[in-house]
Structures are given as C-alpha cells and as structure tokens.
C-alpha cells in the first residue's frame, strides 16, 4: 500500500518490505529494487533463466513476467516506487510535490529490458554502502520522523541508483576501473589523490594519463565532476539545503561547494535549482 504522509496529508507512492518473499513480484505500477542479503534465488524472467546470489540486487518493472523456480536460504528486502516518484519537484512546504515530465535519468538504465537479466553488478566494496542506504530507506518509510522524510528518501534512492548504474557500466578490473569503483562508493567522504593512486597501485602521472585517455579528465577532476553530477540531481529533485548537499557529495564546507559548483557550471547552485525547477514545471 502507498504511504500516507502524516506531515503533509498526501499519498506517496512508495513501499518498503523488510522481508521480501517474492510471492507477488512484479508489483503493479512499480519499479522494484530487491537487495539479496543472503542465499540465492533462481527463476525465469521474461522467458530467460536468471540467478541472483547474495550480495546482489535485482531490478523489476511492472510488465516483467517473473517466476521463482528455486530459493536457497534467501533473505531479501525491497523498495518499490511509482515512476512518477522520480519525476517530481518540491515546490514548497504547502504545495508539496507536483508531477512533471521525466527528469531524473540516473539509474533508469537498470530498468530497461535490454539490460542483461536486470541484475546489476554489486561488488564487495559497494555492498556495505548499499545495505546501509537500504536500511535508511526502510527506517525513513516507517518513521516519517519529520516533514522532510520524502526528501531524504529521494536522496538515498538517487544515490543507490547512481551507484548501481556506475558499477554496472564499469565492470572491468583495470586500474582505472578500480579507482572509479572507489570514487563511486566513497565520494561522500574525503578523498585525496594519494587514496586514488594507492587504490590503482600507480603513480599519479600514470594514473592521470590513463584517466585522460579513457575519460578525458584527471582522476581528481573526475571525482569533482562526479560529485557535482550527484549534486545537480539533489538540487533539482530534492528540497535539501545547500550544506546538506555539500556534505552528501563530499564537500567539506558549503562555501567550497558553492565555489566549485559556480566555477564548473557557470551558475550558482541556488540559481541552477531555480532554473531547473521552472523548466520542469513548464514542461
């Protein structure tokens, strides 16, 4: 059942299952993320065999044809949401959320059916962070601790989808891929060039040369661009304050975040937020 926001008297089309038993999949009118925390599950998805082992993630859309053929000591939890949950913008405390056209693109490739088996790659380093974010999603849905609980859920959902998409797209194990995985799982924390060279086991000249050849940027330059990419989503699709966004994306101070954002984007974060919201509403 959808959640009733007791702070704003509105319906929020999301659900969280602390224990997913796989009996009702796929859920109508929902995109579903399932985190397999132990065991394994086998099934048939759209006439193709599928196996998911812990730790793993399974993505479903409402039109999928999915049947379980075997479960082995499986434990899982799920978060499901109406597609419009990603296509909303906070206008004010009184107006709440107004649907717009598709806006958040981060992670949507996970639900496209040309995506092999709908099982994105989950690494040993990424799993603890995914588990933590899923846990917080469940807590926020249950607690609704203040009027901004939906905002925080959108934040963590954007981060989960972004991390899964990045891991799925960079599935090799070259030094650059190892650094990309490190960045995608640690960008909210303090990261130095030494951290990245240690991860790649390369000196900074060689690492930056390989990054330039593959991504057209230095390792630290890529880190900054990735942080700003997440920040843009949070500015557009949540009501988070600038200092909260700065903290969530690895900037030590909001003043430094504003400075870097303005320098790279040519516009302040606040102006960027206002423009993207006006554009979305105009659609």
Automatic annotation (TrEMBL):
Q: Which PROSITE patterns match?
A: HTH_ARAC_FAMILY_1 (PS00041), HTH_ARAC_FAMILY_2 (PS01124)
UniProt xrefs under PANTHER family: ARAC-FAMILY TRANSCRIPTIONAL REGULATOR, HTH-TYPE TRANSCRIPTIONAL REGULATOR EXSA
Q: Keyword annotations for this protein? A: DNA-binding, Transcription, Transcription regulation
Keyword set includes Ligase: no
Could you tell me which species this protein originates from?
Paenibacillus albilobatus
What's the superkingdom here? Bacteria
Q: Which Pfam families match?
A: HTH_18
Report what the protein is called.
Answer: HTH araC/xylS-type domain-containing protein
Gene3D superfamilies the record matches = Homeodomain-like (1.10.10.60)
Q: What is the lineage of its organism?
A: Bacteria, Bacillati, Bacillota, Bacilli, Bacillales
Question: Which terms in the Gene Ontology molecular function aspect does this entry carry?
Answer: DNA-binding transcription factor activity; sequence-specific DNA binding
Domain named HTH araC/xylS-type is located at 177-275
């Amino acid at each position: 059942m959808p959640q009733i926001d007791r702070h704003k008297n509105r319906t929020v089309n999301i659900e969280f299952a602390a224990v997913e038993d796989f009996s009702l999949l796929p859920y109508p009118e929902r995109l579903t993320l399932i985190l397999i925390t132990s065991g394994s599950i086998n099934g048939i998805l759209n006439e193709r065999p599928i196996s998911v082992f812990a730790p793993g993630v399974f993505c479903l859309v409402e039109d999928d044809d999915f049947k379980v053929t075997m479960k082995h000591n499986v434990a899982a939890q799920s978060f499901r949401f109406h597609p419009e949950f990603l296509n909303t913008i906070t206008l004010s405390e009184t107006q709440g959320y107004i649907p717009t056209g598709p806006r958040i693109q981060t992670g949507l490739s996970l639900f496209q059916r040309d995506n092999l088996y709908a099982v994105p790659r989950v690494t040993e380093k990424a799993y603890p962070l995914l588990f933590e974010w899923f846990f917080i999603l469940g807590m926020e849905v249950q607690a609704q601790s203040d009027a901004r609980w939906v905002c925080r859920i959108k934040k963590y959902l954007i981060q989960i989808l972004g991390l899964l998409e990045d891991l799925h797209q960079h599935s090799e194990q070259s030094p650059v891929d190892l650094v990309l995985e490190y960045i995608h799982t640690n960008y909210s924390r303090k990261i130095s060039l030494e951290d990245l060279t240690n991860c790649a086991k390369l000196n900074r000249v060689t690492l930056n040369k390989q990054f330039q050849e593959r991504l057209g940027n230095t390792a630290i330059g890529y880190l900054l661009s990735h942080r700003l990419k997440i920040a843009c989503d949070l500015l557009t699709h949540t009501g988070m304050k600038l200092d909260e966004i700065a903290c969530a994306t690895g900037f030590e101070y909001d003043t430094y975040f504003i400075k870097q954002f303005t320098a790279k984007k040519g516009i302040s974060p606040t102006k960027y937020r206002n423009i993207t919201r006006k554009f979305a509403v105009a659609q």
